[in-house]
UniProtKB/TrEMBL annotation:
This is Acetyl-CoA acetyltransferase. It comes from the Bacteria. Residues 250-398 form the Thiolase C-terminal domain. InterPro entries: Thiolase, Thiolase-like, Thiolase_C_2.
Length: 399
């Protein structure tokens, strides 16, 4: 496809529509011979190739999690000199929030095309001894009042899950169903790190990590990267593939310390989701598939509730009977998610890549279809950061 002519971003008389025009994964899973910078570059090149546009149109750039000056260092490595940058860091929700910022910038004419890129060798670093301890958020600021008690990030999620179980009768078997269905979805994804089927008993009998989470309730550790290119509507005519439009977005933060979390059974997705659906002019019942951050099984369950796919407290029953499978009533994490496909750190951008892949009809044997055989039309990607500290939600659609 011919590349659109590069023009300087400028204010427009009306907000421009914004589409995702390119997506790609870098090598993922087990990648022992690449640096994080190399994975960024690989994903970026592939996303640009996927779009069919020339790199000269990219005047906006977003990056987080690598280097001292993340967007500056990575942009330099990629040979980009953007005039709009973002390095928002809110954990796993970073990429949905950053994408929302990019949409606003493009719509206002402050940028024409924004490239978001992520890459990590989290697994390879552990294997090679380059990382000798788990992620620590330190003991300064508000966290100083919790650090003396010694609870870890995973234990905070476990505490929240236990509260949901106590308050609503949610069972550990229901949580295990989420891991089982994620693995079943991964079976049709050739890029997934783990594809062999598992059962509820397999999940329950695994080594305990933080009660009630056994090993298979927790995300995997992998290497990998991905990239997403967003562009203004006038570039869509020159793209190699059909666009996926960003219809609405929302973001919210909740707490840093557990003592300031009003309700362990409610995540900030309750706010970001409501805003995204309202701004898109759609309802949860209109959505064909959902890509949800799943560092732990409880994240999927409570986010489904908070996005409005079921009532509060009904998540346990909702995830039963294969509802989350690719051919289920609400396909969720159709690539296998962080529980089975890949989880190289801040996974939120992978949610967007998979949602676009499904809406374009590019998922092969893992493709979601409507009951009448048509491709899905609407998807939601919802990222969560910290220990339910932040949330970003995007509603994406074809046409």
């Amino acid at each position: 496809m011919a590349a659109a002519a590069h023009t300087r971003a400028r204010p427009h008389p009306r907000p421009r529509r914004v589409a995702i025009v390119g997506t790609a994964l870098s090598d993922t899973g087990r990648v022992d011979d690449a640096t994080p910078y190399a994975l960024h570059a690989q994903a970026a090149r592939r996303a640009l190739a996927d779009s069919g546009l020339d790199r000269s149109i990219v005047d906006g750039f977003g990056s987080a999690g690598l280097g001292t000056l993340a967007p500056v260092e990575v942009a330099e490595y990629l040979g980009l000199k953007p005039t709009w940058v973002d390095s928002t860091g809110v954990g796993g929700a970073t990429w949905e929030v950053m994408a929302a910022h990019a949409v606003d910038a493009i719509a206002a004419g402050h940028a024409n095309a924004v490239l978001l890129v992520y890459g990590s060798t989290a697994r390879a670093d552990i294997k090679a001894g380059r990382r000798t301890s788990n992620l620590s958020f330190g003991g300064r600021g508000p966290l100083q009042f919790e650090v003396p008690y010694g609870h870890t990030l995973i234990s905070k999620y476990a505490m929240a899950a236990r509260r949901h179980m106590h308050q609503y009768g949610t069972t550990v078997e229901q949580l295990a169903e989420i891991a089982v269905q994620a693995r079943a979805n991964a079976a049709t994804n050739p890029d997934a790190m783990f594809r062999d089927p598992i059962t509820v008993d397999d999940v329950l009998s695994g080594p305990m990590i933080a009660d009630p989470f056994t090993k298979l309730h927790c995300c995997i550790r992998s290497d990998g990267g991905c990239a997403v290119l967003l562009a203004a509507e006038e570039y869509v005519r020159d793209t190699a593939k059909d666009p996926v439009w960003v219809l609405g977005s929302g973001m919210a933060v909740s707490h840093t310390t557990m003592s300031e979390w009003d309700d362990f059974t409610v995540s900030p997705a309750a706010v970001s989701g409501r805003l995204a659906f309202e701004r898109a002019g759609v309802r949860p019942s209109d959505i064909d598939l959902a890509e949800i951050y799943d560092a732990f099984t409880y994240m999927t369950l409570v986010t489904l509730e908070d996005l409005g796919f079921c009532e509060k407290g009904e998540g346990g029953a909702f995830v039963e009977k294969g509802r989350l499978l690719r051919d289920g009533a609400l396909p969720v994490n159709t690539d296998g998610g962080g529980l089975s496909a890949c989880h190289p750190g801040m996974r939120g951008l992978f949610l967007v890549v998979e949602a676009v892949r499904q809406l374009r009809g590019e998922a092969g044997s893992g493709q979601v279809r409507k009951p009448d055989g048509r491709l899905p039309e609407l998807a939601v990607a919802s990222g969560t950061g910290g220990w339910f500290c932040s949330s970003g939600t995007l509603v994406l659609g074809r046409g």
